[in-house]
Design goal:
Blueprint: H1 38-46, E1 49-54, E2 66-72, H2 78-86, E3 104-108, E4 113-117, H3 128-144, E5 148-156, H4 163-175, E6 178-184, H5 191-204, E7 211-215, H6 224-235
Helix pairs in contact: 1-6
The chain binds guanosine-5'-diphosphate (GDP).
């Protein structure tokens, strides 16, 4: 996010004005990383295609290559973020299909690279037993999946750092995974309050290694390029 942007409007549309446009790499990028153009990044993420749903670790695709997983409380905006990042309006709908909501859904990119939609942490209505089961599978996934290179933690910018998010941040710390926080629905706030929320979350995670934060909006594309760059750098550490 370019805080010096004189444009006081948070809105931006896809690659055109994704210029919260920051041509620099995000904090999580590998040094010396050669970043493709916005257009090439868009094309790369557009290749995402559903491959498989897994109820447990043994059903996941082979643990080779690299993958980036998305987590968030239900309704935080995770599916919308995945759809926007991949430029595919319906991609994450698969994860919303009844029966698939508790599954880990895999979307293949090129060459053994994957995006992974982790089950949304349910509404209060979900029975405790279900929550514990979810927690067990998710923790196993985070612990054992060596191809997991980073976690995107999606939070509603108006309600960041809920108890679920803290659990995820603790896990990220424990398993030493990169973490990039998308404060989404940024279009719902004016610039001042949105920046305030960004600063507060940045402050809260400042001591947490490999963790970065940005504003995002699936609706108007705020922060889209920054998010794509971060994910790309995780998936291409040597380039
Ligand atoms: P999920 O349960 O985390 O996958 O959340 P969804 O992606 O289904 O989003 C939940 C609700 O928030 C839906 O009504 C979306 O249309 C809305 N939403 C998601 N992202 C944004 C955003 O960036 N801006 C706005 N205004 N609404 C959003």
């Amino acid at each position: 996010m370019n805080t010096d942007n004189p444009n006081n409007d948070l809105s931006s549309d896809d690659s055109a004005n994704d210029s919260s446009a920051n041509n620099s790499l995000s904090e999580n990028s590998a040094p010396g990383h050669l970043m493709p153009s916005a257009e090439d990044l868009q094309k790369y993420f557009q290749t995402a295609a559903f491959t498989v749903s897994a109820a447990k670790l043994t059903q996941c695709p082979a643990n080779v290559g690299l993958e980036v997983a998305f987590a968030g409380r239900s309704n935080a905006g995770k599916s919308s973020a995945i759809n926007r990042l991949t430029g595919q309006k319906k991609l994450a709908r698969i994860s919303k299909t009844p029966g698939r909501t508790q599954l880990i859904n895999f979307f293949g990119l090129r060459d053994e690279q994957r995006l992974v939609d982790l089950p949304g942490y349910g509404y209060a209505k979900v029975a405790l037993a279900k929550k514990l089961e979810w927690q067990k599978h998710l923790e196993q996934y985070l612990e054992k999946r060596s191809s997991l290179t980073g976690l995107v933690l999606v939070m509603d910018v108006r309600h960041p750092l809920q108890p679920f998010d803290s659990i995820m941040l603790d896990w990220v710390k424990q398993y030493e995974t990169h973490c990039h926080i998308l404060l989404t629905k940024a279009d719902k706030l004016k610039r001042g309050p949105a920046m305030q929320a960004l600063f507060e979350v940045q402050k809260a995670v400042k001591d947490q290694e490999h963790t970065s934060v940005q504003l995002f909006s699936a609706t108007n594309g705020t922060g889209l390029e920054e998010a794509r760059e971060t994910l790309f750098s995780w998936l291409h550490p040597q380039e």
